[in-house]
């Protein structure tokens, strides 16, 4: 995926993001939630562009010195090509550059793809929230990546 690049979210990205979101997320974010990221004072939200189109997106909020990953997704047709990993590396690098000391996220217990991705990046599962997701009462796994200043991205 040589043409892959990352841009901060902009108005033009909202429509293609919503198209992807409807397909890949069982409980999709609303348009309003994405619009909120356009001007979020403590947020960083990036869009992955390849072959001239939006193929993924993700962001984090800076909570004191913790980077809380809010969402990450890759369009179905572009999954398993390393885009999710490169997007997360970009987010974590920017979080570190913004002085964040660690990162955390919540993920559905059954979302094996995402859990594997986060583990590959160095996140460790540290708690389970029973029945956390309202749509299907699925548990959430809470993951943390400690010591972001000394974090190294995976070699491959
Ligand atoms: C999770 C998601 C973002 C991964 O994006 P992706 O671009 O397909 O992932 P990558 O190709 O960068 O994969 C990187 C690593 O993630 C893991 N991984 C990704 N998809 C996987 C799958 N289907 N099964 C197992 N491991 C997987 C692997 O460890 C992989 O490394 P490898 O290629 O060396 O095996 C993507 O599946 C997605 O958008 N899912 C729907 C939305 C979602 O669940 N988001 C997370 C919410 S918390």
- Helicity, as a percent range: 25-40%
Any idea what the CATH superfamily is called?
Gcn5-related N-acetyltransferase (GNAT)
Mean pLDDT: 97
**Ligands bound to this protein structure:** coenzyme A
* Count of DSSP strands: 7
**N-end to C-end Cα span:** 14 Å
CATH architecture: 3-Layer(aba) Sandwich
Strand order of the largest sheet: 1-2-3-4-5-7-6
Compute the number of structural domains.
1
Description:
With 156 residues, the protein is of the alpha+beta class. It has one domain: Gcn5-related N-acetyltransferase (GNAT) (Aminopeptidase, 3-Layer(aba) Sandwich). It contains four helices and seven strands, in the order E-H-H-E-E-E-H-E-H-E-E. The chain has helices at residues 14-24, 31-36, 83-97, 112-121, and strands spanning 5-8, 43-50, 53-63, 66-74, 102-108, 124-129, 140-145. A seven-stranded mixed beta sheet has the order 1-2-3-4-5-7-6, with helices on both faces. Strand 2 (43-50) and strand 3 (53-63) form a beta hairpin. The longest helix is centred in the middle third of the chain and has 15 residues, at 83-97. The two termini are 14 Å apart. The relative contact order is 0.15. The mean pLDDT is 97. The structure holds coenzyme A. Coenzyme A (COA) binds at residues 24-25, 72-74, 79-85, 107, 111-114, 116-117, 120.
């Amino acid at each position: 995926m040589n043409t892959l690049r990352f841009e901060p979210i902009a108005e033009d990205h909202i429509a293609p993001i919503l198209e992807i979101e409807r397909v890949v997320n069982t409980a999709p974010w609303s348009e309003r939630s994405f619009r909120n990221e356009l001007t979020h004072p403590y947020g960083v939200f990036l869009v992955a562009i390849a072959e001239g189109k939006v193929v993924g997106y993700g962001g984090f909020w800076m909570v004191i010195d913790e980077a809380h990953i809010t969402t990450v997704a890759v369009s179905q047709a572009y999954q398993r090509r390393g885009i999710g990993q490169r997007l997360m590396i970009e987010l974590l690098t920017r979080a570190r550059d913004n002085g964040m000391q660690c990162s955390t996220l919540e993920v559905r217990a059954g979302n094996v793809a995402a859990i594997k991705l986060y583990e590959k990046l160095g996140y460790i599962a540290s708690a389970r929230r029973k029945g956390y997701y309202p749509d299907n009462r699925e548990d959430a796994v809470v993951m943390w990546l400690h010591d972001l200043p000394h974090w190294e991205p995976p070699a491959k």
